[in-house]
């Protein structure tokens, strides 16, 4: 039995499932589909409820955490909001301990697995780990001071950019969609800031030749170069897609030395899959930006004919 934890609208999961046509016993659990009923500590067995069906972890041969969450339905009705917050905080800690054991059971039972339920977008930790293995990163700092930011911009050889410390914000409010992107930081913008503001991440803007999207799958690299620097709309953030003039993308072979460093980095981060962002500057130096443990890979797989979805299916079957 193959267990996949994902989200209803994730197209990458759909495509991987198309390659699993010979495996009929597959459970694809989206939000609230799968619940933990009980855990037998001695037997190292979990009983799940998948909709109306009960499943033992002993019958699971492959597990892929693609994205999403296991259901942890609990509600508190208390008029004291402070007490309610404290109780929720405690229950969240309890749930996190359960999830840690949940993932360990699959390891102990030697279940084939992909993805990490617990490793999220730890951007600051990623940058430090990247440095430790010898990868270049942009000059990075966090500040909440307007005066400090002005001084750093003055002493910086290149422009500054800012982006989210964790995942980029994306939400809808009052029928308006709000998306967070990487943005240039101008002197005018800094002057408009209050003297102190929420601690924010800033980096030196690297003048790039091209950028790289790399999907990592168990020590294998599927890389694509994106020539985004020639389009003002995508020059700073490629996610500002220009549908009328799409960026040129081509398959790319990473230097062996970069692959070795990236592999060491991924092992240190506890990741066996992930979508890595890098860029190459005008001196042909490689810069690590970040890795999304649950990032999309169709944008690399399809234009480069890598058939990554087939390779993931092979790992699960």
From TrEMBL:
GO biological process, one term: SOS response
First and last residue of the signal peptide: none
GO CC entries: cytoplasm
Molecular-function annotations in GO: ribosomal S6-glutamic acid ligase activity
Coiled coil: none
NCBIfam families the UniProt entry points to: GRASP_w_spasm (TIGR04192)
Protein name: Grasp-with-spasm system ATP-grasp peptide maturase
Gene: gwsG
